[in-house]
Amino acid sequence: MSVHAIHAAIPPSRHPALLGLIALIDATSGEERGAVLGRWLETRFGERRPLGWQVERAAAAAMSLLDAADTPIDELARRHRVSRRQLERDFRRCLGVAPRTYARLVRFQRAACAIADGMPLAQVAAEHGFADQAHMTRVFGETAGVTPRHLRDGGGAAAALRSVFAHRTVMPPALRLAA
User: Fold this and answer.
1) CA 133-138-142 angle, 5° bins
2) Environment class of residue 125 by beta-carbon count within 10 Å: exposed (0-12), middle (13-18) or buried (19+)?
């Protein structure tokens, strides 16, 4: 089936976003394709689409975990009136990670920020829910491949990580919401 046959088979009122893509395919020169693609992207970026209740529920649960990363997942699911399994599916679909993994990332980020601010390591471990400093060191190694001491001292690979935490802009790719 040709592009034009597909165009004829799908009414534009039903799928208006396809019009721009069809125009892109119909464009003959590279410049024309670039202009068509630019117009199509600007239109799509300007559209306001509702996120949907599942995304809103996952976002609300994620915000709850930001407030209290040590909240048990079963309790979090009850608060949001959903089963634990459904909450896990919502998180994976919207954030790319399970709720427990997200909570660990929140705890890691807060601990790393505290270290970047110069707080003593033992105090960071105690205040951020780690059993002890050795537990925090294991978690840092598993999560970022650096020790808290390397992060504090800013040596090697920890230098880039330290600058990110200093600016409080940590947002792993898995936590970006899908459009």
Assistant:
1) 145
2) buried
Q: Is the dihedral of CA 54, 57, 61, 63 positive or negative?
A: positive
Half-sphere exposure of 82 (CA within 13 A, CB side): 19
- Does the pTM of the predicted model rise above 0.70? no
Residue type, 57: R
Q: At what angle do helices 158-166 and 99-116 cross, to 10 degrees?
A: 90
Q: Are 54 and 92 in contact (CB under 8 A)?
A: no
Give the C-alpha separation, 91 to 101, whole Å. 10
Query: What stretch of H or E contains 116?
Result: helix 99-116
Rounded average pLDDT over 136-161: 78
Rg of the chain, C-alpha, whole Å: 23
Angle between helix 99-116 and 53-67 (nearest 10): 40
The residue ranking higher by pLDDT, 116 or 132, is 132
DSSP 82: S
Rounded alpha-carbon distances, angstroms, from residue 26 to 4, 32, 48, 57? 9, 10, 27, 41
Integer Cα distance of 168 and 53 in angstroms? 29
